[in-house]
């Protein structure tokens, strides 16, 4: 990522240089005037340009059109801005403008660039039966580098969400034929939690209760049409920042800090909640409990840092092998589990033995070279019992695998 800063104040340039290096660590070019900026823009492709509005050789903000002429997003810095200038800048389609007031102004610039980089990977679905309104919202989102998808009604939006579950934000109008905004949100919340998808409602109706009704129905925020560009951008970015924070908290609570697979807490919460449903539907549930053989020797020989590298790679292989369809979790230390819904013990044995054999012949690469490890596995299938009892039985099978010489897969109850 490369950034262009066009600023004639050396003090401001030094502040930005320090903050960008500290927070972003990317390549930065500096220009003190428009002439230098023009040369740099012909030499490099920039992710974004941060530019002063008034330069020694461009007093009327001509730099903005120059930057945008090179298809480069533009963030404007200015010491002052009247209402007419602000309106003109927004019409030009800049990313944002920032008043040069204090250090916090420049910190905001860096946060904005960081957000823009994240936005490149964020899909936003805009649902509105008005093409004019859809295109306007789309243009605002594309200024912030989002990937934008359009739907002309609520039913189309639902189909798109089903086919593209990686959409992060839904922006929906209230009045739509077939399925209105309220109905769409209710349907969406049946499949997507607040950690998975954020929703912002829009409406031109003057009903004062709409905002509360949207949020009570599951939206994260609401905007009354017509809205100013800045408010729209602030609401979108604040909503996504909140979503990022919620996701981060969820990950801290439910993912293993070292390997990134689910942790013991998540595993128990998930299956204790599902256990009754599994038993009612007569669905099979089989657990495999795995333990890396002689892992203490790895730590004693190579050190705990290398041991951690082994754990990370082992978890990655488990996730690659099983994670698409089954639940992989770390229980602690070198012990992991895989939960198989819909498979009996014999099928799980076949899968786990294949994984065991593959691990035996494919060394784990570490910063101190390849290390060969093996794994012992115990398997138990659910009968009319608690999750704790099921795990105890899998642990008994794991004990048998170790007693019989390790690098084995054993099914509980089989001799």
UniProtKB/TrEMBL annotation:
Domain Response regulatory: 2-115, 123-240
SUPFAM superfamilies in UniProt: CheY-like (SSF52172), Nucleotide cyclase (SSF55073)
Modified residues (4-aspartylphosphate): 52, 173
EC number(s) per entry: 2.7.7.65
Catalytic activity: 2 GTP = 3',3'-c-di-GMP + 2 diphosphate
Signal peptide residue numbers: none
InterPro entries in the cross-refs: CheY-like_superfamily (IPR011006), Diguanylate_Cyclase (IPR050469), GGDEF_dom (IPR000160), Nucleotide_cyclase (IPR029787), Rev_trsase/Diguanyl_cyclase (IPR043128), Sig_transdc_resp-reg_receiver (IPR001789)
Keyword Phosphoprotein appears in the UniProt entry: yes
CC cofactor: Mg(2+)
CDD domains given in the database record: GGDEF, REC_1_GGDEF, REC_2_GGDEF
Any one GO BP annotation for this protein: negative regulation of bacterial-type flagellum-dependent cell motility
GO molecular function, one term: diguanylate cyclase activity
Enzymatic class: transferase
Cross-referenced NCBIfam families: GGDEF (TIGR00254)
Protein name: diguanylate cyclase
Organism: Shewanella woodyi (strain ATCC 51908 / MS32)
